[in-house]
Design a protein that fits this description.
By secondary structure, the protein is an alpha+beta fold. It has a single domain, classed as Class II aldolase/adducin N-terminal domain (L-fuculose-1-phosphate Aldolase). It has 6 helices and 8 strands; from the N terminus they run αβββαβαβαβαββα. Strands 3-2-1-4-8-7-6-5 form an 8-stranded mixed β-sheet, sandwiched between helices. The protein is elongated and about 75 Å long.
């Protein structure tokens, strides 16, 4: 289990899906949850960073567990999830601030995997019972959702699948952002407001190999 946490924690950070000390992951085993420590660095997890705690009851480890424990518990209690990943992917977070209620991928993979990713909002975005109840409800129908301005929560039978949803969502959001940016640039060019400025000497000679 430690190997799984370390592998996907490192990948989440390496792909830029969260900051050095951001995000959290967990796995459910019966009535026990194994969740990353509050403030843990996902890219450098050790055995001490994986906190075991009850699915419903607190114990002495409660102060060490991620601040999102309340959300993870609610999701496990009301969905068939056995693994949860929560990260702050920048392109997805940015898009969550400008779309109304869902991110609609336009790329082939995103369209196939998601069709759409719900975007919800709450007044308190970190470790609140409001987020917990909303997360459990949304993840009863979807595998991933965006909390506006904060990040995504994804579920799966194993960490790898939960990781895949976050990674694929961010990739789709990058493509959506780049496409919109190119459309704006193309429109500016067509109106004569933007063009390729030539700066190279003897550029006329570049027509031939």
């Amino acid at each position: 289990m430690l190997d799984q946490f370390q592998r996907f924690g490192y990948d989440l950070f390496l792909r830029g899906l969260t900051s050095s000390h951001g995000g959290n992951m967990s796995v459910r085993m019966g009535d026990r949850i194994f969740i990353t420590r509050t403030g843990a660095m996902l890219a450098h997890l050790t055995e001490m960073d994986i906190i075991e705690i009850g699915l419903e009851e607190d114990d002495s480890n409660i102060m060490l567990a991620s601040s999102e424990l309340v959300v993870h518990r609610e999701i496990y209690q009301h969905t068939p999830a056995l693994a949860i990943v929560h990260v702050h992917p920048p392109y997805a977070v940015a898009l969550s601030m400008v779309v109304k209620d869902a991110i609609i991928p336009i790329d082939s993979e995103g369209s196939y995997l998601f069709r759409k990713v719900p975007v919800v909002q709450t007044e308190k975005t970190v470790g609140s019972t409001e987020v917990a109840k909303m997360a459990a409800k949304v993840l009863g129908e979807y595998k991933i959702f965006m909390l506006r301005g904060h990040g995504c929560f994804s579920i799966g039978p194993v960490l790898e699948e939960a990781y895949q949803w976050c990674s694929s969502l961010e990739e789709s959001c990058k493509i959506l952002h780049l496409t919109r940016t190119l459309h704006v640039a193309q429109e500016a060019i067509s109106q004569g407001n933007l063009g390729d400025l030539e700066y190279r000497k003897h550029s006329d000679d570049y027509d031939t190999w």
